[in-house]
Amino acid sequence: MKRLLSLLAIVALGVSLTFCLDRLYCHNEYIRYDRELGVFAEKFQRAILHQLTDLTAVGDLRAFLLARNTLPAQDHFVRYTSEVKKYYRTVSLFSYIDETGRRRYSYPAAADDEARDAYNEQMAKALSDKKTTLSSPRYIQGRLTTVAMDPLFRDDKFLGIGEVYFNIDIILEQAFNSVSVAEGPFFARIADSDGKVFWEKGDDPGGSKQSVREISIPAGDARWQATIGWQRFPEPSRFIRTLTWGGGGLVTLLLLIIVNGVWERQAWLSRQVAEKTAELVSRNKAVLEAKEARAKAERLSSLGTMAAGISHEINQPLNSIKILSSGMLYALRAGEYPTPDEIGSVVQGISGQADRISNIITHMRSFIRGDGTLVVPCEINKAVEQALGIVGTQVMNHGIALRKELAEGLPLISVAPTALEEVVINLVINSMQALDKTDRLEKWIGIRTRSGDGVILEVSDNGPGIKKEVLEKIYDPFFSTKEGCDNLGLGLPMVHTIISSCGGTIDVISNENGTTFTICIPCGQDGKTEVRKS
Q1: What does the CA dihedral 464, 382, 504, 468 come to, rounded to 10 degrees?
Q2: Which end of the chain is more exposed for a tag (fewer CB within 10 A), N or C?
Q3: pLDDT tens digits for 250-292?
Q4: Using CA atoms, how far apart are residues 352 and 342, in angstroms rounded to an integer?
Q5: Residue among 387, 352, 354 at smallest CA distance from 495
Q6: How many Å apart are CA 461 and CA 401, to the nearest integer?
């Protein structure tokens, strides 16, 4: 389920990112198109204004009329203006108005316009009376015609007015064609001050207001309103959009393949880990079982070594029982009847010796079973005595003296009693076996307890010592320098494991004069051992 959700999430993410990239590209294209429209509108406005303020034709007419002492005749004026008009495509009419306001010359012939003639007469009279001046051409706008007027003076004498009519259609057409950045994509329409459209170019599709520009064009005393827009708003490049979606789909597919491969790899690794874990658990179980079996074999091997001491310990109470019972039988056969107190004393002695035998057997059973997990507060001196009770006789039968120096008042330590006895027995047996290899006249094993950072146990001997190259391996399982199949090499490793589990330490000092093992088991302020795991 998680795998399916991950793949679906990647698909959704890939589609979302591709869609966002496509929208971003389209948005940037729309912004670019809108900016392009703004550039076109600004250029169109500047072109119109430039055409309207180009007064070269008015200046040339003024220079022609003032070039001689007398004004030219009609035919001379017509010839001049007909030639000049070829160079001024935007000029529709040249005319000369005399000082009375009457139009004397015009080319082509001007249509009758009473209102226009009345205006000219008023302007001429004002100029003649010097009530007004025309320092620059004055524009009189119509909807389709713009008029430029230039006064004529010679020696401060008013001679009339030069007048030029400009064709607005041609001006606007030239302005539009001069700035069009693409063939036919734009439209334009221009309305006069009253809002009536008098010129347009291209078809207005009636599109969104985002695709048009509104500009104002001052034309003399009037102000035109121009609307510029796209005839057909361009679409973003299909190639780039296809490339974007194709690339997004390819990246999404690659991510799906990669993630699916990762899931497959993870599933394979999980199966491998599960198989290896099961295999390791099986092997570990087998190793633990083998280790427990070897440990038990080591204890049984040690028990064989302790057999003589055990038999001696049991024989002593048995001999006492035999002596007490034989003495009682002998008295009865001799006709001597002991008193009840004497019988009670004999029976009590026999019972005490039987209890002693039972305690020895119980202790040996516990040792053989390895009840080392029962951690209780115990006295280290008592554990030493119990251990020596098992192996002490065997040690003395080997001609080795035991030297005990057990301090009194030591605090209790939390450790399994049988495990502590096993530590003492292993160390004593190792010392005994080492001393058996020497021909010293005096052989001894010393056992000492004392207090320090904790409770300290020292087991030492005057044997031949442990070689340096062997000393580094004495705690390795199954390492042994002893000959014979009974020596499994687990004695000292077991000692090390038991002491480490109690949070204690074990140190060894060895030379040619003997070996000393020093064991320290820490204890708390309340007299109990602090048990640490290692």
Answers
A1: 0
A2: N
A3: 888 888 888 888 888 888 888 888 888 888 888 888 888 877 7
A4: 15
A5: 387
A6: 10
Q: Please state the domain count of the chain.
A: 2
Q: Which amino acid is at 269?
A: L
pTM of the model: 0.40
CATH classification at residue 105: 3.30.450.20
Beta-sheet pairing, 186-191 with 222-230:
antiparallel
Q: How far apart are CA 464 and CA 510, in angstroms?
A: 9
C-alpha 458/C-alpha 503 separation (Å) is 17
Q: What is the CATH number of the domain that holds 403?
A: 3.30.565.10
Question: Going by DSSP bridges, is the β-strand pair 197-201/376-378 parallel, antiparallel, or unpaired?
Answer: unpaired
Number of CB atoms found within 10 A of residue 530's CB: 15
Q: Report the percent of the chain where pLDDT is more than 70.
A: 80
Residue with tokens 């057990």: 406
- Dihedral sign from CA coordinates of 292, 293, 294, 297: positive
Query: pLDDT tens digit string along 224-246?
Result: 888 888 877 677 788 888 888 88
Give the ranges where 53-113 is alpha helix by DSSP (H): 56-65, 74-84
